[in-house]
Amino acid sequence: MSEKLKLVLFNIGLVITIIGTLYWFMERGDEKHKIRINTVNNNYEYSKGIITDIHYYKGRTIQVKYKISEKVYEATLGWNKNPKDLDEGDSIRIRYSVEKPDLIISELEEEY
Q: Hey, what's the torsion of the CAs at 78, 94, 63, 90, to 10 degrees?
């Protein structure tokens, strides 16, 4: 087998491996998101939290600190919309899972 053919086959294998790995990570992230949403929607309560950090670019993430039964939790979530123009330090409404209070849905997510 010529060196050129080996190099082409190696590059094709490398590209397939990288694409497969990226696809696997995306699917795993979607699965975790669905599990979180289903767990919260199964049995939930409402509460409020404080936005400790918010990013408006590259994925839109938000960090929320909240207190349930005298225990403080912190969650990092994605967000879809921000009609009230909430920012760091503002209060935010959340729904949390009664069984697993570390799982929440914020008012900035479509699923809320």
A: 120
Token pair for 58: 């590259």
Residue 110 tokens read as 């479509």
Full 3-state SS string of the chain: CCHHHHHHHHHHHHHHHHHHHHHHHHHHHHHHHHHHHHHHHHCEEEEEEEEEEECCCCCCEEEEEEEECCEEEEEEEECCCCCCCCCCCCEEEEEEECCCCCCEEECCCCCC
- Residues 45-56 have pLDDT tens digits of 999 999 999 988
pTM above 0.90, yes or no: no
Nearest to 97 by CA among 11, 50, 35, 32: 35
- Among candidate residues 101, 41, 52, 51, the one with its CA nearest the CA of residue 72: 101
